[in-house]
Amino acid sequence: MRLVQIANGDDRRVAMVEEPDLVLLHDVTSTYALALRAIESGQKITGLAESLRSTERMAYDTVYEGTHSWKLLAPIDVPGDPQKLLVSGTGLTHLGSARERQSMHAAAGTTPDEVDEAEMTDSMRMFEWGRRGGRPAEGLIGIAPEWFYKGDGSVVKGPGDALTIPGHAEDGGEEAEVATVYVIAADGTPHRIGMATGNEFSDHVFERRNYLNLAGSKLRECSLGPELVLNADFQDVPGNVKVLRAGSTIWEKQIRTGEANMAHSLANMEHHHFKFAGHRQAGMVHVHFLGADALSFGSGIRLAEGDVTEVQFEGFGRALRNSIHAEEALAACVQVKVMQ
Protein backbone atom coordinates (compact mmCIF):
# COMPACT_ATOMS: atom_id res chain seq x y z
CA MET A 1 0.00 0.00 0.00
CA ARG A 2 1.18 3.52 -0.85
CA LEU A 3 -0.13 6.74 0.70
CA VAL A 4 0.19 10.40 -0.22
CA GLN A 5 -0.58 13.63 1.60
CA ILE A 6 -2.27 16.45 -0.30
CA ALA A 7 -3.29 19.99 0.58
CA ASN A 8 -5.53 22.70 -0.84
CA GLY A 9 -4.85 25.85 1.13
CA ASP A 10 -5.39 24.95 4.78
CA ASP A 11 -7.30 21.77 3.93
CA ARG A 12 -5.41 18.49 4.06
CA ARG A 13 -6.22 14.90 3.09
CA VAL A 14 -4.53 11.51 3.02
CA ALA A 15 -5.08 9.27 0.00
CA MET A 16 -4.21 5.75 -1.12
CA VAL A 17 -2.57 5.34 -4.51
CA GLU A 18 -4.62 3.13 -6.81
CA GLU A 19 -3.26 4.04 -10.24
CA PRO A 20 -4.40 6.04 -12.10
CA ASP A 21 -6.36 7.45 -9.14
CA LEU A 22 -5.94 8.66 -5.61
CA VAL A 23 -8.56 7.24 -3.22
CA LEU A 24 -9.16 9.70 -0.40
CA LEU A 25 -9.42 8.59 3.22
CA HIS A 26 -12.01 10.10 5.52
CA ASP A 27 -11.55 11.15 9.15
CA VAL A 28 -7.76 11.62 8.90
CA THR A 29 -5.73 14.58 7.61
CA SER A 30 -2.12 13.41 7.99
CA THR A 31 -0.13 10.19 7.82
CA TYR A 32 1.25 11.11 11.24
CA ALA A 33 -2.24 11.09 12.76
CA LEU A 34 -3.01 7.84 10.94
CA ALA A 35 0.13 6.20 12.33
CA LEU A 36 -0.55 7.36 15.90
CA ARG A 37 -4.09 6.09 15.68
CA ALA A 38 -2.92 2.70 14.43
CA ILE A 39 -0.29 2.43 17.18
CA GLU A 40 -2.68 3.45 19.95
CA SER A 41 -5.39 1.03 18.77
CA GLY A 42 -3.01 -1.86 18.13
CA GLN A 43 -3.98 -2.04 14.45
CA LYS A 44 -1.86 -2.40 11.37
CA ILE A 45 -1.65 0.92 9.56
CA THR A 46 -2.64 -0.78 6.30
CA GLY A 47 -5.79 -2.19 7.86
CA LEU A 48 -6.71 1.14 9.41
CA ALA A 49 -6.20 2.94 6.11
CA GLU A 50 -8.43 0.42 4.32
CA SER A 51 -11.16 0.95 6.89
CA LEU A 52 -11.05 4.72 6.26
CA ARG A 53 -11.24 4.65 2.47
CA SER A 54 -13.97 6.81 1.01
CA THR A 55 -15.69 6.84 -2.37
CA GLU A 56 -13.89 10.07 -3.34
CA ARG A 57 -11.27 9.81 -6.07
CA MET A 58 -8.88 12.19 -7.83
CA ALA A 59 -6.91 11.72 -11.03
CA TYR A 60 -3.34 11.22 -9.80
CA ASP A 61 -1.84 12.67 -12.99
CA THR A 62 -3.31 16.13 -12.44
CA VAL A 63 -2.16 16.28 -8.82
CA TYR A 64 1.29 14.92 -9.68
CA GLU A 65 1.81 17.35 -12.55
CA GLY A 66 0.69 20.32 -10.42
CA THR A 67 -2.37 21.25 -12.48
CA HIS A 68 -4.91 20.33 -9.77
CA SER A 69 -6.01 22.64 -6.95
CA TRP A 70 -4.75 19.98 -4.53
CA LYS A 71 -0.96 19.84 -4.11
CA LEU A 72 1.25 16.93 -3.14
CA LEU A 73 3.06 17.29 0.19
CA ALA A 74 5.94 15.28 1.59
CA PRO A 75 4.41 11.95 2.65
CA ILE A 76 5.21 12.51 6.35
CA ASP A 77 5.26 15.58 8.59
CA VAL A 78 4.03 16.71 11.99
CA PRO A 79 1.48 19.37 11.08
CA GLY A 80 2.12 22.62 12.92
CA ASP A 81 5.05 21.22 14.91
CA PRO A 82 8.09 20.53 12.67
CA GLN A 83 10.41 20.38 15.68
CA LYS A 84 8.90 16.97 16.51
CA LEU A 85 10.44 15.49 13.35
CA LEU A 86 14.14 14.59 13.25
CA VAL A 87 15.95 13.98 9.96
CA SER A 88 19.15 11.92 10.04
CA GLY A 89 21.04 9.44 7.90
CA THR A 90 23.65 6.74 7.58
CA GLY A 91 26.43 7.05 5.02
CA LEU A 92 29.04 4.67 3.64
CA THR A 93 26.45 1.93 3.27
CA HIS A 94 26.46 1.18 -0.47
CA LEU A 95 29.08 -0.66 -2.47
CA GLY A 96 28.62 1.66 -5.44
CA SER A 97 29.37 4.90 -3.62
CA ALA A 98 32.28 3.27 -1.80
CA ARG A 99 33.81 2.29 -5.14
CA GLU A 100 33.44 5.91 -6.29
CA ARG A 101 35.33 7.14 -3.24
CA GLN A 102 37.98 4.49 -3.75
CA SER A 103 38.55 5.65 -7.34
CA MET A 104 41.12 8.16 -6.07
CA HIS A 105 43.43 5.19 -5.43
CA ALA A 106 42.93 3.93 -8.97
CA ALA A 107 44.22 7.29 -10.21
CA ALA A 108 47.45 6.54 -8.40
CA GLY A 109 47.85 3.31 -10.39
CA THR A 110 46.11 0.86 -8.07
CA THR A 111 42.71 -0.79 -8.06
CA PRO A 112 40.37 -0.84 -5.05
CA ASP A 113 41.21 -4.49 -4.37
CA GLU A 114 44.93 -3.69 -4.23
CA VAL A 115 44.62 -1.06 -1.50
CA ASP A 116 45.34 -2.43 1.98
CA GLU A 117 43.88 -1.01 5.17
CA ALA A 118 46.95 1.09 5.96
CA GLU A 119 46.43 3.03 2.72
CA MET A 120 42.68 3.50 3.08
CA THR A 121 41.03 6.81 3.81
CA ASP A 122 39.03 6.94 7.03
CA SER A 123 35.86 6.82 4.93
CA MET A 124 36.90 3.62 3.17
CA ARG A 125 38.11 2.09 6.40
CA MET A 126 34.70 2.72 7.98
CA PHE A 127 32.97 1.21 4.97
CA GLU A 128 35.09 -1.93 5.28
CA TRP A 129 34.26 -2.20 8.97
CA GLY A 130 30.61 -2.13 8.02
CA ARG A 131 31.05 -4.77 5.35
CA ARG A 132 32.75 -7.05 7.87
CA GLY A 133 30.61 -6.35 10.94
CA GLY A 134 27.46 -4.53 9.87
CA ARG A 135 25.27 -7.56 9.24
CA PRO A 136 25.17 -9.47 12.55
CA ALA A 137 23.03 -12.54 13.17
CA GLU A 138 19.49 -11.82 14.30
CA GLY A 139 19.39 -10.45 17.83
CA LEU A 140 23.09 -9.56 17.92
CA ILE A 141 24.62 -6.09 17.76
CA GLY A 142 26.91 -5.24 14.86
CA ILE A 143 29.41 -2.46 14.38
CA ALA A 144 28.04 1.09 14.44
CA PRO A 145 27.66 2.80 11.05
CA GLU A 146 28.42 6.38 10.17
CA TRP A 147 25.59 8.63 11.38
CA PHE A 148 24.69 12.25 10.70
CA TYR A 149 22.06 14.79 11.70
CA LYS A 150 20.32 16.72 8.95
CA GLY A 151 17.67 18.89 10.59
CA ASP A 152 14.10 18.99 11.81
CA GLY A 153 10.86 18.87 9.85
CA SER A 154 11.42 22.36 8.45
CA VAL A 155 14.10 21.02 6.06
CA VAL A 156 11.82 18.41 4.47
CA LYS A 157 10.45 19.41 1.06
CA GLY A 158 7.81 17.67 -0.97
CA PRO A 159 7.50 16.62 -4.61
CA GLY A 160 7.76 19.58 -6.97
CA ASP A 161 9.25 21.88 -4.33
CA ALA A 162 12.55 23.63 -4.96
CA LEU A 163 15.65 22.48 -3.10
CA THR A 164 17.65 25.53 -2.09
CA ILE A 165 21.41 25.94 -2.28
CA PRO A 166 21.80 28.51 0.52
CA GLY A 167 23.90 31.62 0.11
CA HIS A 168 26.55 30.33 2.51
CA ALA A 169 26.96 26.99 0.68
CA GLU A 170 29.64 26.02 -1.81
CA ASP A 171 27.49 23.49 -3.66
CA GLY A 172 24.27 21.50 -3.62
CA GLY A 173 24.09 17.98 -4.99
CA GLU A 174 21.47 15.26 -5.14
CA GLU A 175 21.76 12.00 -3.20
CA ALA A 176 19.17 9.50 -4.40
CA GLU A 177 18.21 7.35 -1.44
CA VAL A 178 15.42 5.49 0.28
CA ALA A 179 14.42 6.96 3.65
CA THR A 180 12.74 5.05 6.45
CA VAL A 181 9.98 6.70 8.49
CA TYR A 182 9.33 6.00 12.17
CA VAL A 183 6.83 7.16 14.78
CA ILE A 184 7.59 6.73 18.49
CA ALA A 185 4.79 5.27 20.60
CA ALA A 186 3.75 6.54 24.02
CA ASP A 187 5.88 3.85 25.68
CA GLY A 188 8.99 4.86 23.71
CA THR A 189 8.86 2.02 21.18
CA PRO A 190 9.91 3.01 17.65
CA HIS A 191 7.47 1.90 14.94
CA ARG A 192 8.66 1.81 11.34
CA ILE A 193 5.56 2.91 9.44
CA GLY A 194 7.03 2.89 5.94
CA MET A 195 9.66 3.99 3.46
CA ALA A 196 9.83 6.72 0.85
CA THR A 197 11.90 7.81 -2.11
CA GLY A 198 14.26 10.57 -1.00
CA ASN A 199 16.79 13.12 -2.18
CA GLU A 200 19.18 13.73 0.70
CA PHE A 201 20.88 16.77 -0.96
CA SER A 202 24.25 17.82 0.44
CA ASP A 203 27.15 20.23 -0.11
CA HIS A 204 29.77 17.96 -1.65
CA VAL A 205 32.30 20.70 -2.40
CA PHE A 206 32.39 21.68 1.27
CA GLU A 207 32.67 18.02 2.30
CA ARG A 208 35.48 17.33 -0.19
CA ARG A 209 37.66 20.06 1.34
CA ASN A 210 38.00 17.91 4.45
CA TYR A 211 35.97 14.90 5.55
CA LEU A 212 35.51 16.57 8.94
CA ASN A 213 33.18 18.96 7.12
CA LEU A 214 30.71 16.10 6.64
CA ALA A 215 28.50 17.22 9.54
CA GLY A 216 28.12 20.74 8.18
CA SER A 217 27.66 19.57 4.59
CA LYS A 218 24.53 17.65 5.60
CA LEU A 219 22.72 20.65 7.12
CA ARG A 220 20.70 21.29 3.99
CA GLU A 221 17.16 20.73 2.78
CA CYS A 222 16.02 17.33 1.54
CA SER A 223 12.96 15.98 -0.23
CA LEU A 224 10.67 12.97 0.16
CA GLY A 225 7.89 11.36 -1.78
CA PRO A 226 5.56 11.47 -3.40
CA GLU A 227 4.49 8.23 -1.72
CA LEU A 228 4.87 6.56 1.65
CA VAL A 229 5.24 2.82 1.00
CA LEU A 230 3.78 0.88 3.93
CA ASN A 231 4.88 -2.63 2.99
CA ALA A 232 8.03 -2.09 0.93
CA ASP A 233 10.27 -4.96 -0.15
CA PHE A 234 13.71 -3.58 0.69
CA GLN A 235 15.84 -6.58 -0.21
CA ASP A 236 17.04 -5.51 -3.67
CA VAL A 237 15.64 -2.28 -5.10
CA PRO A 238 16.68 -1.00 -8.54
CA GLY A 239 16.27 2.66 -9.32
CA ASN A 240 17.15 5.54 -11.58
CA VAL A 241 18.41 9.05 -10.91
CA LYS A 242 18.78 11.85 -13.43
CA VAL A 243 19.56 15.55 -13.67
CA LEU A 244 17.79 17.72 -16.26
CA ARG A 245 18.91 21.14 -17.45
CA ALA A 246 16.68 23.24 -19.70
CA GLY A 247 14.53 20.16 -20.26
CA SER A 248 17.36 17.86 -21.40
CA THR A 249 18.99 15.08 -19.38
CA ILE A 250 22.62 15.95 -18.65
CA TRP A 251 23.33 12.99 -16.35
CA GLU A 252 21.54 9.74 -15.61
CA LYS A 253 22.44 6.53 -13.83
CA GLN A 254 20.87 3.20 -12.93
CA ILE A 255 21.25 2.61 -9.19
CA ARG A 256 20.46 -0.10 -6.65
CA THR A 257 19.63 0.03 -2.98
CA GLY A 258 18.19 -2.49 -0.55
CA GLU A 259 19.86 -4.72 2.02
CA ALA A 260 21.45 -6.97 -0.63
CA ASN A 261 23.45 -3.96 -1.82
CA MET A 262 24.44 -2.49 1.53
CA ALA A 263 27.21 -3.04 4.05
CA HIS A 264 24.84 -2.77 7.03
CA SER A 265 21.57 -4.56 7.66
CA LEU A 266 18.52 -2.41 8.27
CA ALA A 267 18.14 -3.92 11.75
CA ASN A 268 21.70 -2.92 12.63
CA MET A 269 21.21 0.66 11.44
CA GLU A 270 17.93 0.88 13.35
CA HIS A 271 19.52 -0.40 16.56
CA HIS A 272 22.35 2.12 16.41
CA HIS A 273 19.92 4.98 15.76
CA PHE A 274 17.39 4.11 18.43
CA LYS A 275 19.82 2.96 21.13
CA PHE A 276 19.91 6.62 22.19
CA ALA A 277 17.14 7.40 24.67
CA GLY A 278 16.75 10.86 23.16
CA HIS A 279 15.65 9.21 19.92
CA ARG A 280 12.80 7.39 21.64
CA GLN A 281 10.69 10.32 22.81
CA ALA A 282 6.94 9.69 22.59
CA GLY A 283 5.25 11.30 19.61
CA MET A 284 8.45 12.03 17.71
CA VAL A 285 8.84 11.25 14.01
CA HIS A 286 12.17 10.13 12.56
CA VAL A 287 13.13 10.21 8.89
CA HIS A 288 16.37 8.32 8.32
CA PHE A 289 18.21 8.26 4.98
CA LEU A 290 19.87 4.93 4.18
CA GLY A 291 22.66 6.00 1.83
CA ALA A 292 23.26 6.64 -1.86
CA ASP A 293 24.60 4.36 -4.58
CA ALA A 294 25.81 7.09 -6.95
CA LEU A 295 26.13 10.89 -7.15
CA SER A 296 26.18 13.19 -10.17
CA PHE A 297 28.89 15.15 -8.33
CA GLY A 298 31.21 12.16 -8.81
CA SER A 299 30.80 12.63 -12.57
CA GLY A 300 31.69 16.31 -12.42
CA ILE A 301 28.13 17.67 -12.44
CA ARG A 302 27.47 20.87 -10.49
CA LEU A 303 23.77 21.59 -10.02
CA ALA A 304 22.64 25.11 -10.94
CA GLU A 305 19.58 27.34 -10.76
CA GLY A 306 16.66 25.78 -12.61
CA ASP A 307 18.07 22.26 -12.85
CA VAL A 308 15.67 19.43 -12.01
CA THR A 309 16.56 16.22 -10.17
CA GLU A 310 14.47 13.08 -10.57
CA VAL A 311 14.71 9.96 -8.41
CA GLN A 312 12.68 6.79 -8.80
CA PHE A 313 12.88 3.34 -7.18
CA GLU A 314 11.05 0.24 -8.35
CA GLY A 315 8.08 -0.50 -6.10
CA PHE A 316 8.13 2.98 -4.54
CA GLY A 317 5.65 4.69 -6.83
CA ARG A 318 6.11 7.76 -8.97
CA ALA A 319 9.36 9.67 -9.36
CA LEU A 320 10.43 12.38 -6.94
CA ARG A 321 11.13 15.57 -8.87
CA ASN A 322 12.61 18.77 -7.47
CA SER A 323 13.96 21.91 -9.07
CA ILE A 324 17.10 23.65 -7.81
CA HIS A 325 17.13 27.21 -6.50
CA ALA A 326 20.47 28.88 -5.77
CA GLU A 327 20.42 31.84 -3.40
CA GLU A 328 22.73 34.80 -3.88
CA ALA A 329 25.98 34.52 -1.95
CA LEU A 330 25.71 35.56 1.68
CA ALA A 331 27.01 39.12 1.91
CA ALA A 332 26.88 39.79 5.64
CA CYS A 333 27.24 37.95 8.92
CA VAL A 334 24.20 36.72 10.79
CA GLN A 335 23.68 39.15 13.67
CA VAL A 336 23.16 37.82 17.18
CA LYS A 337 21.56 40.05 19.81
CA VAL A 338 23.17 39.93 23.23
CA MET A 339 20.73 40.05 26.13
CA GLN A 340 21.98 42.45 28.83
UniProtKB/TrEMBL annotation:
<dbReference type="GO" id="GO:0003824">
    <property type="term" value="F:catalytic activity"/>
</dbReference>
<dbReference type="InterPro" id="IPR036663">
    <property type="entry name" value="Fumarylacetoacetase_C_sf"/>
</dbReference>
<dbReference type="InterPro" id="IPR009645">
    <property type="entry name" value="GguC"/>
</dbReference>
<protein>
    <recommendedName>
        <fullName>GguC protein</fullName>
    </recommendedName>
</protein>
